[in-house]
Amino acid sequence: MNKLYLIPGAVLLALAVSTNSCSRADAGTTSATACATDDLENPRPFPHSAPLHYPDLDKVRINDSIPSQEKDYEGFRVSFNKNNGTPNWVAWELLGSETDGPAKRSNKFREDPDVEGCPTPADYRRSGFDRGHLCPAADQKWSEKAMDDCFILTNIAPQNNSLNTGAWNTLEGKERQWAKRDSAIIIVAGPIYESADTQRIGTTGVRVPGAFFKMLAAPYAEKPRGIAFVYPNMASPGNMENYAMSIRELEQITGYDFLYALPDSIEDIIESSASFREWNRRN
User: Fold this and answer.
1) Considering the entire predicted model, what is its pTM?
2) Which of 36, 199, 228, 266 is exposed most, by the fewest CB atoms within 10 A?
3) DSSP assignment, residue 35?
């Protein structure tokens, strides 16, 4: 599936346009980032009047002491923690053109036998927690395979029903609006654990997180920007703005390094902004 980047021309800089096309299938990865050059300061622009496209924005640096098995699925990338039975993070690029499509929600939750510590559907049964998606099904309507993959339990964590059907669901809907606005956004989501988070469910012992985070960045917007959110794993009433923070603040909470593949000048702009109103503006 071709990824069409309709980004404002102001960010194009004076670079020659590549003659090679790129699609998810051609790239063989979670996004078309693999088709961009490794020269981060001068990434190769795409065809079809396309803008710059930076590689590896769906990768996150975490401490080496944290168990992590990374795996690419159709449409998203996962770092899975065998000790928690949940992902450390799930990352994907969402295009405005991908916010709708023919693929129907499958609801076929299943384990991945190739990932150590992956839970089974039985672990969540009668647990009192929802099977909370990190990469939501509604972001994967563009592909039957992507829709199917997002129900694999490496993309799931125990989530309070009030959060899953309330504030978290609202945030998922907003991210699709933001993708349409900016043509392409980078999203990373995951659970947050503190030492006090000792509750586990199922025979596999899936650890229940105390909170969830989501990082969003629009590196191709005319004015690059970003925002992050942290929601406690419970009913989270009130304005979305109350849960917003800068990406840099989220990095301090999680210890993760997001967007490290961006040129420093752009990364600093995106990660330092904490203005929800600026992020949420319509352009």
Assistant:
1) 0.84
2) 199
3) G
CATH number at residue 140: 3.40.570.10
Please report, in angstroms and rounded to a whole number, the separation of the first and last CA atoms in the chain.
Answer: 28
- The verdict on residue 49 lying in a domain is no
Residue 149 pLDDT: 98
Q: Which range marks the domain in which residue 179 is found?
A: 56-280
203 in any annotated domain: yes
Q: Which range among 34-38, 72-76, 124-128, 208-212 shows the weakest confidence by mean pLDDT? A: 34-38
Report d(CA 20, CA 48) in Å as an integer: 10
Q: Catalytic site residue 48?
A: no
**222-233: burial string, b at 16+ Cβ within 10 Å, e else:** eebbbbbbbbeb
The first and second tokens of residue 83, run together, are: 């000790």
Residue 49: strand, helix, or coil: coil
The residue that leads in pLDDT, 10 or 95, is 95
What pairs with residue 212 in β-bridges?
A: 191, 231
DSSP-assigned beta bridge partners for residue 131: 158
CA 227, 188, 220, 168 torsion-angle sign: negative
11, 180, 181 from 32: Cα distances, Å: 19, 18, 19
- Select which of 133, 176, 207, 214 is catalytic: 133
Higher pLDDT, 34 or 111: 111
User: In the chain, how many domains are there?
Assistant: 1
Q: What is the pLDDT of residue 230?
A: 98
Nearest CA to 163 out of 183, 142, 191, 143 is that of 191
Q: How far is CA 45 from CA 16, 39, 58, 227, in A?
A: 7, 11, 18, 25
Distance, CA of 55 to CA of 210 (rounded, Å): 32
